[in-house]
Amino acid sequence: MSGRYSDSDHILALAGVFQGARMTFELARVGHTDEKMLEASVATLFVTHPQTVMAVYGSAANLEMGLRHFIFQLSSPQDRNPEVTRYSIQLLQLGQKLHQDSARLQALGEALDNFQSRAEAFEFDRDTRYSQLAGIYQEHISTLSPRIMVQGDPANLQRGDIADRIRTALLCGVRSAHLWYQCGGRRWHLLTRHRRLLKAARELAGQMDQE
Fold it and tell me: Fewest beta carbons less than 10 Å away: which of 7, 13, 44, 109?
């Protein structure tokens, strides 16, 4: 994937980041999230040679949660969720670190390839898949700084299945954050291109509503 990238391309990647952040928040605070959105995000981990940014996600509908919350967070600063904001910023920081670390990126890619081979051979159930992906996050991402400290209900955070889903959601968020940097995005663009990005997000949401 190479070439010039549009504001819509940037929004797709940012929506993926915000989706990972929002799912993390929901899992930690209320113990569940939209499984369809989580599965759609997981699918992006295995799109390794896309021709376009949209090809990573399949369709804008697979980013509905992230897109809605991106628009809300940027258009209503007085009401924004500080935890989702913090997770999003930290995911972008981790995406940048990964983008700059070719050895770690290669190792992560190999781990995901190995996981996919095992998942197909042994027909992992959903909980096993999340457990395996959480392990990949712990090995290849959680050792990076800043380490994301998730806040929430201790009863949720102590449950293994929820903790696995949180780490999986964060792994998906990092994947989109890395894509953001691949497309030429920078964290300061959220400030300097605020209006452009918000306009593109609303246009994409409008197109999704018409589908």
Answer: 109
